[in-house]
Specification:
Purple acid phosphatase; 6 helices; zinc; 28 strands; six-stranded mixed sheet; single chain; Purple Acid Phosphatase, chain A, domain 2; alpha+beta; PAPs_C; MPP_PAP; eight-stranded mixed sheet; signal; disordered N terminus
């Protein structure tokens, strides 16, 4: 009975759409240092052994979750690029060969970057895998998702703009306590571009070792942000997401299905105007969505389409004007973004009937519209964006300038529980929650 009462209360709160009910949190974040952890911090430790694999991470390798891409870096030489894997830790029966490459950026020369695609896996199965050789070999594991189906439960973590400060460490450790099974990452990874010259590459390496404690065991679905565009005016050099392309083996826009969710990742920094490749791809992908099989439809971008924070205000307006009508037409459940270093959640509003001569100039309540979540609050060295528009716009439901992460737990085809957790002086504190009611069902 208590659970039913709590759920009913959440449903009531999630149905409120009057902007006057919006809340700006009064919480004031304690000033923690917004600077990167020193390179000799234990979370950046290089694995023991000659040429030991490091920066290990996995992501989904096909459309439906029966394949993974395992990636890692060897620092000294290419070494073996194969993965041994199996369903028994003591009997890794199968081996698959991968690829290896490296790159140079200014004075930095990367290690040897390996990618290995493993296909034909069985859903809902724990696999163990080994990379490296001899005394330097390292062992990990991952769990494949359950079979695609409308009532398949699953729990996602949502993280953005993480960086590698002590605040970042708090966010990652709190996420590891959450029971999340995969991460929806909304962009801006290492913030290495805040450093100079060869330290840019060095801080990619430290970040890869930092994220490994989660990313080696469960897939992170990557999106690129502005900090993956590395610009060095001293040498007239621009590297467009070179580190992400090489190390994280991810296209700039893509889609996957996992459990009962269809996930679409878009690039805020690639062309998206009419007839551009991304525009054409998204039009085709939305038509491909089968809500009978994957009732939950989520979109990941970097620039928020709705945000009332002063920082980066309306930078996502161009993409909103192009894609919002599709999000309403196809009843997207939620759109997750980063970029702004604070937290905000919207009501279901849209601005697709803009007509300045007819007086329709502002967003209006729309039950077919998605909820927009800005979660660029992972903890990076640039600190928090603490200034919001006043008064709070009607579309804004809750906003707070704090570090944190979120979880999205799908219960069945009709209900999912969403929680945002604040990092409060090292503690994980639930600060915003609601039950999402599926837009299709």
């Amino acid at each position: 009975m208590l659970l039913k009462f709590v759920l009913a209360s959440f449903v009531l709160l999630s149905s409120i759409r009057d902007g006057s009910a919006g809340m700006t949190s009064s919480f004031v974040r304690t000033k923690w240092p917004s600077e990167d952890m020193p390179v000799d911090h234990e979370v950046f430790a290089i694995p023991k052994g000659y040429n030991a694999p490091q920066q290990v991470h996995i992501t989904q390798g096909d459309y439906d979750g029966k394949a993974v891409i395992i990636s890692w870096v060897t620092p000294d030489e290419a070494g073996p690029s194969h993965v041994q894997y199996g369903t028994s830790k003591s009997n890794l029966q199968t081996s698959k060969e991968g690829t290896v490459a490296n790159y140079t950026f200014y004075n930095y020369k990367s290690g040897y970057i390996h990618h290995c695609l493993i296909e034909g896996l069985t859903h809902n199965t724990k696999y163990y895998y080994r990379i490296g050789s001899g005394d330097s070999a390292r062992d990990f594991w991952f769990q494949t998702p359950p079979t695609i189906g409308p009532d398949t439960p699953y729990k996602f973590g949502i993280i953005g703009d993480l960086g590698q400060t002590f605040n970042s460490l708090s966010t990652l450790e709190h996420y590891l306590e959450s029971g999340g099974q995969a991460v929806l990452y909304v962009g801006d990874l290492s913030y290495s571009d805040e450093h100079e010259f060869e330290d840019v590459g060095l801080r990619w390496d430290t970040w890869g070792r930092f994220a490994e404690k989660s990313a080696a065991y469960q897939p992170w679905f990557w999106n690129v942000g502005n900090h993956e565009v590395e610009f060095m005016p001293e040498v007239f050099c621009v590297a467009l997401v070179e580190n992400v392309r090489e190390k994280y083996s991810s296209p700039l826009w893509y889609a996957v299905r996992r459990a009962s969710a269809h996930i679409i990742v878009l690039s805020s920094y690639s062309a998206f105007v009419r007839y551009s490749p991304q525009y054409i791809w998204l039009k085709e992908e939305l038509a491909r969505v089968d809500r009978e099989k994957t009732p939950w439809l989520f979109v990941i971008v970097h620039k928020p389409l709705y945000s009332s924070n002063v920082a980066h205000y309306m930078e996502g307006e161009a993409m909103r004007s192009v894609f919002e009508s599709w999000f309403v037409q196809y009843k997207v459940d939620a759109v997750f973004a980063g970029h702004v270093h604070a937290y905000e959640r919207s009501y279901r509003y849209s601005n697709i009937d803009y007509n300045i001569t007819g007086g329709r100039r502002y967003p209006v309540p729309d039950t077919s519209a998605p909820i927009y979540v800005t979660i660029g609050d992972g903890g990076n060295l640039e600190g928090l964006a603490s200034s919001y528009l006043d008064p709070q716009p009607e579309y804004s439901a809750f906003r707070e300038a704090s570090y944190g992460h979120a979880t999205l737990e799908i219960k069945n085809r009709t209900h999912a529980v969403y929680n945002w957790y604040r990092n409060d002086d090292g503690k994980r504190v639930p600060a915003d929650s609601l039950v999402l009611l599926n837009q299709y069902w």
